[in-house]
Every structure is written in structure tokens, then in C-alpha cells.
Amino acid sequence: MREYIIRAAGPADLDRARAVMLDTVYRDFGTGYVPRWHGDIVDPAAAYLSSPRHTLLVAVDPEGPGDGGSGAGDGGSGAGEVVATAALDSRGPAHPPNPRELAERYPSGETAQVRRVYVRPDHRRRGLARRLVGELLGFAAADGGYRSVYLHTDPSVPGAEPFWRSLAKVVHDEREDAGRAGGVLHFEIPMGR
Fold this sequence. Notes:
7-stranded mixed sheet; alpha+beta
């Protein structure tokens, strides 16, 4: 069984993490890069590395190709391939586009929002996403200032809905909203999980 290294991303990891995220939004979501939704992907350092309350995790396959990084001290090992990402920040869901009641229930500053849990297709079904989410929950608990953990997902992405239902509680299903086609699923993960 392959051993993956899960760690906080450093500056040397950002290009490889961004590649995982962009590949996912193009391949799995079919949206491509949309600035109002994906600004954190373009500048993950500002989104996740500049605040001690935010984090970007990477899963590295040490057997995969590296980027030729210089090694210790550059924020990443340089060895291996970044095959998965997961992030957390203190921004609650904005209204619009999210329902007003969610923005009120999960205010910024008190809400740890899980984002960008993406695994390259050839590394899926190995427990990486679950491990990454566990690390994010540990990070949120250690912060001490978060009262809830929130996330949203597109249920049309294969595997997304059952995965999140196995870890979290649905707090709003936009598919049930009158007059809406499609929709997003909103979840809360218990803090003590």
C-alpha cells in the first residue's frame, strides 16, 4: 500500500497544489476557472498561508515525480507529487449566492469553512480525502475560535455527495428550493468529530 505524506503546504508546494485544484475545476466540475469562485486557487498563498487561522494541506506521493524543489527550508520537500489538497479558512458562506439563513448561521470569523478537498483521479479511493478532512478538523479545533465547520459541494460531481454525507450533516439542499434548477448541498461537520 502506498504511503502518502500529509502536511501543511509551503511556498514550494503552491504551483503543484494549484495544478491539482485547476485540473479538478476543469475536469470534474466542468466550469473551468471562474474568478468570483476560484480566486483562492490563483493565489493560495494570500488565501491560506497569510493567516494563522487558515491552512492549505497537501498530500504528497513520495514515489511520484517531484518539482525539483531545493528541499528543506523552502516550505516543501520538493520530492514527490502533490496528489491532493484540502483547505480551511475563516470565511463563512456569503449571501448572495448562498441562502441568507446560511450566511447568518455560519458567520465569518466563527466558522471554519472547508474548501478545495480535491484528489487526483488515480489516487482516489485510498482514504486521502478522509485523512485530509481529519487534519483540517484538528486544525480548526486547535484554533479555539471556531464554533462550527461548514462546507458546500456540488452533488453532480461523482462521489461528492456520498462522501460528505458520511462525514457531515446536510443543513440545506438547494435542489429542494422552489424555482431553482440544480443546486448546491450545504453541510456542517460536528466540531468534535
